[in-house]
């Protein structure tokens, strides 16, 4: 779905005047990023967790609720102008249940759990089953919007680079200064930092009338594995040992692990293969339909992300976005 630019509406205090109260669903890194970004705005922010959080952000109202049950009563109590889901993105039935509850409670706006790969890419859908589920959610939202029951915006942000580097899921080992690259290393893919997700969501709220009822692409940057290696070497002053592997091996090993009952291990290999496999053409819409300018966002800096990743690796046990200097 291509970006279009309808007439803009007035915004108040930097936020779309029709959105004053926001409800965020999910206890995960995407949700945390969005909470942090929105907590610094003029919005009234509510968060739904399956259990009481150990720490809470100032000015945020938390609600403990089972996300697997109907949320209509909670939605009717909070009466948000917008619901942002970061939970159960890979399950169409779970997302549909949330959307149905939102519509029943007459919540006018909804952002589904995306914030990653392009779920509309058929090749990605074939390789990553959760992307097929997300695509079904988009189709369902399109139909509900056509019937005038809800407005929606879905956002693909690419891979979360800092988390991928710190966890090793992108093939980099920071401790041992090494990397295993699938493909030739020059293949470009969309990426951004963990905080980027929150900044994009806040920008979507601010520009809702420009992007409503659309699937948009807003990565912090497009990069290659070779560029990541070069940036790591520049920042550390060390030479990384780089090994090469075939994309097909990555895919077959990921599928084998899924068949053996190791879904997490299998999925991270398949997700990695999408980044480095030019056959997927996964970067194209992030280049051709880049929404950053429309959203008023500047690109992220690879150097800044690498600097932060190395800081977190060296001083905070590999936990991303510690927030210190």
Automatic annotation (TrEMBL):
Species this chain originates from: Extremus antarcticus
Entry annotated with the keyword Iron: no
Keywords (A to Z) from UniProt: NADP, Oxidoreductase
Keyword NADP in record: yes
GO MF assignments: oxidoreductase activity
Protein name per its UniProtKB record: NmrA-like domain-containing protein
Coiled-coil zones: none
Signal peptide start-end: none
């Amino acid at each position: 779905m291509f970006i279009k630019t309808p007439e803009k509406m007035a915004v108040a205090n930097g936020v779309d005047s029709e959105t004053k109260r926001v409800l965020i669903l999910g206890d995960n890194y995407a949700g945390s990023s969005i909470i942090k970004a929105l907590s610094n705005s003029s919005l009234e922010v509510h968060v739904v967790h399956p259990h009481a959080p150990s720490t809470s952000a100032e000015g945020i109202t938390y609600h403990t609720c089972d996300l697997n049950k109907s949320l209509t009563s909670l939605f009717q109590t909070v009466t948000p102008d917008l619901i942002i889901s970061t939970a159960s993105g890979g399950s169409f039935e779970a997302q549909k249940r949330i959307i149905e509850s939102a519509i029943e409670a007459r919540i006018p706006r909804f952002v589904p759990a995306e914030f990653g790969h392009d779920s509309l890419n058929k090749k990605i859908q074939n390789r990553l089953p959760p992307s097929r589920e997300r695509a079904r959610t988009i189709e369902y939202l399109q139909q509900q919007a056509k019937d005038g029951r809800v407005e929606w915006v879905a956002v693909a942000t690419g891979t979360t680079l800092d988390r991928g580097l710190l966890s090793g899921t992108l093939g980099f080992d920071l401790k041992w200064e090494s990397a295993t690259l699938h493909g030739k290393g020059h293949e470009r893919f969309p990426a951004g930092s963990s905080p980027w997700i929150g900044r994009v969501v806040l920008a979507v709220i601010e520009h809702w009338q420009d992007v409503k009822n659309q699937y948009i692409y807003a990565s912090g940057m497009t990069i290659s594995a070779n560029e990541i290696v070069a940036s790591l070497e520049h920042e550390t002053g060390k030479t990384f040992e780089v090994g090469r592997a075939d994309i097909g091996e990555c895919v077959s090993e990921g599928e084998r692990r899924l068949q053996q009952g190791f879904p997490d291990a299998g999925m991270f290999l398949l997700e990695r293969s999408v980044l480095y496999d030019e056959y997927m053409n996964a970067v194209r819409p992030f280049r051709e339909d880049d929404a950053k300018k429309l959203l008023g966002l500047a690109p992220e800096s690879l150097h800044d992300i690498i600097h932060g990743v190395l800081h977190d690796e060296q001083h905070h046990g590999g936990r991303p976005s510690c927030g210190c200097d």
